[in-house]
Write a structure and sequence with these properties.
Helices cover 77% and strands 1% of the residues. With 311 residues, it is an all-alpha fold. β1 and β2 form a beta hairpin. α5 packs across α7 and α7 packs antiparallel against α10.
């Protein structure tokens, strides 16, 4: 091999390594830049309200008093409802596609689920507002008011006027949105289990139920946990669909039927109409909180998944 060819390969390898390093560093610089810009914009509100910004339910542009408790409550509750509804459905669909359905049906249904993941969030929001919310109000909410009004705890959760939009509606729409992600990841995880594990389980007399719930699902619990965290990150940061159906009320109610707000919905609704610097700074403080919460959720998930792999 000539010296000229060796030098050319050395230069190509060096350029390739530097390009990869630069790309990796660029991600870190971008992340830190976003954090610094949010912190700089949010600083006036954080300096004025301090730790009370997290706990206050006051959000009044007229008196310039702002607190994040209502938005944080709506964000966390709607995301929890979404995970609670979507996870069992995703597990059932994933098991059906990998263990029960014939190959032609599995491929078709999997392709349809992937198409659902590609639908823009604003389409989910419009469908939720104009189609799902009226149906939900006329059918489920009226039924739930009659059925649970006298039941302790459930009576508080399912009370109030049946308006269609509200905290529960936003949670259900979020569940529809994260369902394709959860299902696709769970299906892929179940597909990686070698058939010899299934054959060994059936060989010792286990039925399909026992193989699924005592062998297959425990084998992919780390992957399921990671899928839940990814879906939770999507639900926490979702904006347009939630803005359409959550109601936009700066209030904190025990009833899931009542209108509420979320961090992303508050920013989307009010940022263009902010009338003073403190209002803008408070909205940026909400953005900073959402950034920190999402980053913390992802970081904790990575740590827990790494511990499970090592154990």
């Amino acid at each position: 091999m000539s010296t000229l060819v060796m030098k050319s390969r050395w230069h190509s390898d060096t350029l390739f390594q530097r390009a990869c390093w630069s790309s990796a560093i660029l991600i870190g610089v971008l992340l830190v830049s976003i954090l610094i810009s949010l912190l700089h914009g949010a600083w006036p509100a954080l300096e004025k309200f301090g730790f009370g910004f997290l706990l206050s339910t006051e959000w009044n542009p007229i008196t310039s008093e702002y607190g994040a408790a209502n938005a944080l409550y709506g964000t966390l509750v709607s995301s929890f409802i979404a995970i609670l509804l979507a996870l069992p459905l995703s597990l059932a669909i994933g098991v059906f596609l990998t263990e029960l359905a014939p190959a032609w049906m599995s491929h078709s249904v999997a392709a349809a689920i992937e198409l659902l993941a590609a639908v823009p969030s604003i389409i989910y929001g419009m469908w939720g507002l104009f189609v799902f919310a009226p149906w939900f109000s006329e059918h489920f909410q009226l039924w739930a008011l009659d059925a649970f009004s006298e039941v302790p705890v459930l009576g508080l959760l399912f009370s109030g006027p049946p308006m269609g939009v509200g905290l529960l509606t936003s949670g259900i729409i979020l569940a529809f949105m994260i369902l394709p992600i959860l299902t696709a990841l769970i299906k892929e995880a179940l597909s990686t289990i070698p058939n010899v594990m299934r054959e060994a389980s059936y060989g010792i007399g286990a039925n399909r139920w026992e193989v699924t719930f005592f062998v297959l699902l425990p084998a992919v619990r780390s992957a399921i946990f990671g899928a839940v965290i990814l879906a939770l990150g999507r639900a926490l940061g979702e904006t347009m669909a939630v803005t359409f159906v959550i109601g936009g009320a700066q209030d904190m109610n025990t009833s899931l039927f009542m209108p509420a707000t979320s961090v992303s919905a508050t920013i989307a609704e009010q940022f263009n109409e902010a009338t003073n610097d403190m209002h803008i700074s408070s909205l940026l403080a909400l953005g900073l909180l959402l950034f920190v919460i999402t980053f913390a959720v992802m970081a904790v998930a990575r740590i827990l998944m790494r511990k499970r792999k090592l154990s």
